[in-house]
Amino acid sequence: MTPVDRARLATLAARPSFHKGRYRNPDRTPRHGLRSFLRWQRETGGRFPPGQPFPLAMPDSALLTSPATRPRLTWIGHASFLFQYRDISLLTDPVFARRASPVQWAGPKRFTPPALTAETVPPINQVLISHNHYDHLDRDTVLALHRRFGRDITWFVPEGVGAWFRRRGIDNLVERGWWQSAPHQAGEAFFVPAQHFSGRGAHDSNRTLWGGWVMDIHDVRLYFAGDTGYGSCFAEIGEVFGEIDLALIPIGAYAPRWFMGPVHVDPDDAVQIHQDVCARTSVAMHWGTFVLTDEPMDEPPRRLAQARAAAGLPDEAFRVLGHGDTLTL
Fold first, then answer.
1. How many domains is the chain partitioned into structurally?
2. What pTM was computed for the model?
3. Which domain CATH number covers 251?
4. Does residue 20 belong to any structural domain of this protein?
5. Residue 78 contacts residue 264 (beta carbons within 8 Å)
6. Pairing of strands 279-285, 244-250
7. Fewer CB under 10 Å: which end of the chain, C or N?
8. Can you tell me whether residue 294 is helix, strand or coil?
9. Binning pLDDT at 50, 70 and 90, where does residue 112 land?
10. 157 within 8 A of 129, measured Cβ to Cβ
């Protein structure tokens, strides 16, 4: 595993990210307020593309409960993965709810069920949270995992998000700002920037941080990018870490570009992130589960194949898993 550039890490960690009570992206990004949102709705007539279910493979429970002598990744759906390696069993942004919403009778509906649930996942000891949007942080999922596993789980959360967990009686937390790190039982965790925003209501915009996690786990380096637009932070991640063994990168929720571009990458941007962070293998996420934006639900993998070919990458360099599929590296 390539050594971390600690001097560069310290320099980046010293850069301010908090200004006048709110966090801001490393690069200047336009803020699309109500006027822009209404323009988007007017141009589309307030209509989203139709939802569609995708094939769902039922994960092999015998496999997932067996020792992971090699890194093993299962796509649950959207940004939720199960990663297993040796003594680590880790979830990313687990959301098992029927809707990505504060209520379950309205909001973006799930069109493909989660491949695993809080009741069917194998024993979990780490959970990574990228930010507090409802399609990445779900109250019922968090509470169900806490009821089942309690303090066996360490929750890795962005700066400011820890208060949300403590209000729900969960305090086994690692809470970090950009470029900060913490040791864990099998290595080290680093919270790194993404180009996005946060908020769960009308008055808390950017009051908590957002980002991705780089997890050094034994001899493997895992990168979970979270939710993001494209920015300079990805080249910086490549500079600090040198090489990523496995990167989980979003490819969906990108249209229209004038509105979504600053905060959601498209497949071309995703391929650029793969190259910037020096990933050996990347896996696509953030598509095929909820209808959030204007592109058809099945378009992102097709666009990724085109972007991958244009960059001269082999298919196995940036993979698309089906819901419930397991990849062993």
1. 1
2. 0.97
3. 3.60.15.10
4. no
5. no
6. parallel
7. C
8. coil
9. very high
10. yes
